[in-house]
Specification:
Layout lengths: L14 H62 L1 H18 L23 E3 L3 E3 L4 E2 L3 E2 L5 E4 L7 E7 L1 H4 L10 H11 L4 E7 L5 H13 L6 E6 L1 H5 L37 H21 L4 E5 L11 H14 L2 H18 L5 E5 L20 H20 L2
Parallel strand pairs: 6-7, 6-8, 8-9, 9-10
Antiparallel strand pairs: 1-2, 3-4, 5-7
Length: 398
């Protein structure tokens, strides 16, 4: 008899029964322990498989959601549709004239994609400095571009304005308007050194500040040219704000013009009369400062898509977009009419000249604009030649 192997229910009388019972009890205990553990592992495995299956079922939905988002961002969002339309218009400005479309596209890239983010500047709001792309653009540490004539220059010209003055959407540095202007003046026997201080979305407040900054730095010029006007009507929520929403007053202090508000968050307020008054006041201030420095001033009212009397099909689509976002086209035309009258009055002052380029492309039947403001090489060629026509008599009477 095995010591301790006694069936507690039957006493010590039967060792066989006791041994059997012991084996049964031990086996059952083992089964209970192993069975419970097995069921736990089994349940855990089942849950894991279910979780994996659920996750696998979610994968197609996630893929579709990501693809849908990318489709929206790349093709369906307002900005994507705008870029696509600009690209289509860019190509049309060449194809409709029987010209080859430049493979490189605009020298600054569509929507300025080749340029770095502008650097905040307390005096100018912002500027892009030190950028260089051979054959396309080169800006010095002050954010200026330059045209150097082959011969000894007889005069120095400073050009101020926004992205049109910067030379956006020309395909190269050779085709940009200020190169066209420089070559035309050279042919007229007037080789000039041209400095361009401009940045995308600058309004006339910043253009005038640019003049102040250059003169304060000790620079002197034989003529100052403002090529602007339209940004004052389109940029910023109101007449007294910059494109980025910052108050114009920040340009007169050491405060940065960076603000939390994103451009476009506050819509255009339709304050066209105030915008016209602000622009004319700024140009009057520029005339006074130029007169103090003894520098002749030429104000060129830039070309404007709303001024197109016979826009192409693509340009009509662009106009529809402008009307939907920033006011009726008739309001822009009325405001430009007021700008023309105000600048004509200002040009009656000594040392101030004015050239109206708002309808420069009136005779063009092909697509010329790629958006409300910008145009490609054919437009730059016309602009450069027309500016040369205006500048020759001014430079010759010096």
């Amino acid at each position: 008899m095995v010591v301790g192997a006694v069936d507690p229910d039957h006493g010590a009388g039967s060792s066989i029964a006791g041994r059997g019972k012991i084996r049964f009890c031990v086996s059952r205990a083992c089964w209970d322990r192993q069975g419970y553990s097995g069921r736990t592992r089994w349940n855990t495995d089942q849950e894991m498989r279910k979780t994996v299956i659920r996750l696998l079922c979610l994968v197609p939905a996630i893929v579709l959601a990501v693809a849908g988002y990318r489709l929206y961002v790349d093709r369906l969002s307002p900005s994507a549709r705008g870029r696509s339309l600009s690209r289509k218009a860019f190509e049309a400005t060449f194809l409709e004239r029987g010209l080859e479309v430049p493979e490189s596209g605009p020298r600054d890239g569509f929507w300025g994609s080749r340029l770095s983010r502008p650097t905040p500047d307390a005096r100018l709001g912002w500027r892009v400095t030190g950028e260089r792309e051979p054959g396309l653009f080169e800006m010095d540490a002050d954010g200026c571009q330059h045209y150097r004539p082959d011969g000894e220059p007889v005069a120095r010209i400073l050009v101020l304005g926004g992205s049109v003055a910067w030379g956006a959407y020309a395909s190269s540095v050779q085709t940009v308007y200020f190169s066209v202007l420089g070559r035309a003046l050279e042919r007229a026997g007037l080789p000039v050194d041209i400095t361009v201080l401009a940045a995308g979305a600058w309004k006339s407040h910043q253009d005038v500040q640019g003049l102040m900054v250059r003169l304060a730095a000790g620079e002197s010029y034989d003529l100052v040219l403002f090529l602007n006007g339209l940004n004052d009507l389109t940029g910023g929520p109101t007449a007294d704000t910059l494109y980025n929403g910052a108050p114009v007053s920040t340009l007169l202090t050491d405060a940065s013009s960076e603000v939390d508000e994103e451009p476009g968050k506050r819509p255009h307020q339709g304050d066209f009369a105030e915008r016209v008054r602000a622009y004319l006041a700024n140009m009057t201030r520029a005339a006074e400062r130029a007169r103090e420095s003894g520098t002749p001033l030429l104000i060129a009212l830039q070309p404007s898509l709303p001024e197109r009397a016979a826009p192409s099909g693509i340009e009509r689509t662009l106009l529809d977009g402008l009307a939907a976002s920033s006011g009726r086209i008739e309001e822009y035309r009325a405001a430009y009419h007021s700008l023309r009258r105000g600048l004509a009055d200002l040009a009656k002052q000594d040392g101030v000249d004015y050239v109206d380029l708002s309808r420069l492309f009136a005779d063009e039947t092909a697509t010329t604009f790629v958006d409300t403001w910008h145009f490609t090489d054919p437009g730059h060629a016309l602009l450069g030649e027309r500016l040369a026509d205006a500048l020759v008599p001014i430079l010759r009477r010096r």
